[in-house]
User: Fold these one by one.
Assistant:
Number 1:
Amino acid sequence: SIVSRKKCPSSHSEEIQDCVRATLSEWFATIPPPTSPTDLPDTIDCSIPQATEAITPEEREELKVSVKLFICEADLSSIKDAVDKACQALAVSQLDSVIIAPPALPEEVSQTLDNLQPAWSELEGLVQSHKIATIGTSDLDKELLEQLYNWAQVKPSSNQVNLASCCVMPPDLTAFAKEFDIQLLTHNDPKELITAASFQEAVQESTQDLKVADWRLEWILRYSIIVKSRGIIKAKGYLVHAKRSSL
């Protein structure tokens, strides 16, 4: 897991690359240099505590913690893992809002309710266990959002729309969202937040001792801490989780 912050990025991918480079470089400076990749465990927790905005109990009521979770692998256990790690890193017992971005599909494949249901069920369980207050979706058209809404036990509270592919909110989506009190938000995230090659490049630049091709991204979590009364972002950052393939 990597925790870091970055300002003024030129792209989301570059922002994450810079976070990975800075966090790994700082973390590796605190440990004895590994003599080979096998010296490292399959999972490395290299968070930098001073780079993480832990929230004190006194200020919790004044802040909203919003998260967007990008799933890179099909393993659904990563959803609970990501939420648990975010709560731990930010010192909160519950996230106020989580929007999920499922793994990117090939261009010729359309998103379906069947694809969304397993991940949504995981999120519903986390709402029921009070780890998340509200859950939202990303890039669903009116038909798919309606299907999810009708099927779900915990209804989506929001749906993000990428304005790169849709300059104006579709009227049918706007009408449905208004009728069922679903907030429509905009975003400019690419389908793939960072490629495997870009991630491995950032890792390679941070240390020469890792066989970067052995590491694969499992999930990326982007958080924002918002001051409710002023509507401004107090802090933002990423948690990135990658796992090493069996050697």
Note: Residues 58 and 214 are 43 Å apart (CA to CA).
Number 2:
Amino acid sequence: MCKGLAALPHSCLERAKEIKIKLGILLQKPDSAVDLVIPYNEKPEKPAKTQKPPLDEALQWRDSLDKILQNNYGLASFKSFLKSEFSEENLEFWLACEDYRKIKSPAKMAEKAKKIYEEFIQTEAPKEVNIDHFTKDITMKNLVEPSPSSFDVAQKRIYSLMEKDSLPRFLRSEFYKELIK
């Protein structure tokens, strides 16, 4: 073992230099600040290239969130609106749960459940949704043995949040006003 600088065998000195070089490389700053810039599009994304719904259909979106979520153009418009507010994680979680429910294979279901949990549910998740501890605990217990209904309680809470908070803001937004002109 290497002890004291004077007593360092040749191989220990070489190893120390290698480690120093490797650490130096890891600690280097990027060549330019451009490497650190996250692109930001000032204009919100346009809804997907689906056909604009007739006025009477778009007006029905005021009746329920379900009507928006069942319409491709409505869903795309709602998603664009939420992205413009940096709050699309609730819709993304809700959609991930809808996809999850359709999985038949237990192995794929367990894999997808883990991914949803890590992306949306766990504390400090990249797209953590705002659910209470009770709902989080129920969801975690349901994930011990994943089933199509594992996320039902959390999904209902998020749906309710979107219905009470996001939907009214969307209906007052320019996104929706432009659509019903």
Note: The domain at 55-180 is CATH 1.10.167.10 (Regulator of G-protein Signalling 4; domain 2).
Number 3:
Amino acid sequence: MGQKINPLGFRLGTTQSHHSLWFAQPKKYSEGLEEDKKIRDCIKNYVQKNIRISSGMEGIARIEIQKRIDLIQIIIYMGFPKLLIEDKPRRVEELQMNVQKELNCVNRKLNIAITRISNPYGQPNILAEFIAGQLKNRVSFRKAMKKAIELTEQANTKGIQVQIAGRIDGKEIARVEWIREGRVPLQTIDAKIDYCSYTVRTIYGVLGIKIWIFVDEE
């Protein structure tokens, strides 16, 4: 059977760049990795707690981290930054304090920037959150998938594949359902493909959502 590789790692160095940029000695590498995870979790938790839109979406597409000796630069790419920027300076400062507390970094400065994404529904993470919200509200999964595909079509992408696995609609037997629209050339390294996998906890168990979006050919 065809082995599925993570499309982002597969394309590193061609169409995909790293989300964390820093250098560490081999002995310290694991610490840096844990630090990154802490930062990302902390930001996501903060956004989740402080933002509740009607559909329960956070709207974070990705979080990029750049570390220097005395500075940690964090760029949050958001689809709907209005949610964080309503009373901007206070929110961002509070977030900065939270992250600093989490890391207890004394000799390093923290800098958080928020960047808006032009078409949020072209981002797999935001789409996955949308589908997760729908599934939690017990919308049938086919409807949710089709709606997600309609939303991406507005963001002029070339193709999308959505896959949901688990106890769909609360059935006894877990299964995998998927739907594809347009082209999704996973074998072509030059094709820029965005991917995310997302877990959603429903009443009857955990479902996994995977989304591949074919942006364009380099």
Note: The helical segments are 7-10, 29-50, 82-85, 88-103, 124-136, 141-154.
Number 4:
Amino acid sequence: MDLLPNSEPLATKLQNALIQYHSIGDSEWRIAKKTKDATVWRKPSEEFSGYLYKAQGVVEDVTNRIVDHIRPGPYRLDWDSLMTTMDIIETFEENCCVMRYTTAGQLWNIIAPREFVDFSYTTSYENGLLTCGISLDYGEVRPNFVRGFNHPCGWFCVPLKDYPSHSLLTGYIQTELRGMLPQSAVDTAMASTLTNFYSDLKKALKT
């Protein structure tokens, strides 16, 4: 049986990686997709041969409520159309856990269902919150799933200065889907997944 990592050093390393992504200058990003809800950019990842994606949009709600819908917990499965199952395997503290989740097939099942085991950590950031995660090579892969791998990823959520009831939500995602996939299919799926994430989240927060 694989051993789960020591949570404190992993949480610190993860948080530092996300803060570094958050400081990358605008000139390094190339736009991938824009909708009324969000804009998605990308740049080559330093972790693997794919891309690091950045997504950003304003969400009409307070920071704590938004992050409660994103991080592992009872809300996420209800509204995230890509996620099909989620189990929390281990809880280290209230803000720190390991979860196993599965995602639906995409692009008419060119991308088959995926399974991930992620370490997740939520902490304060400036006057808002950061919820972030990284995949672990842990446990057996379920039948009929391909095990994907999330390199450091996360969501910064901070209140807008002049409209504290609205929040700026900025995500950094670099998912290695693995399996035999054309890169163009992965790129199309990632940009659409991120813009759909914002529209699904906004709908969920209104209910």
Note: The chain has one domain: 53-205.
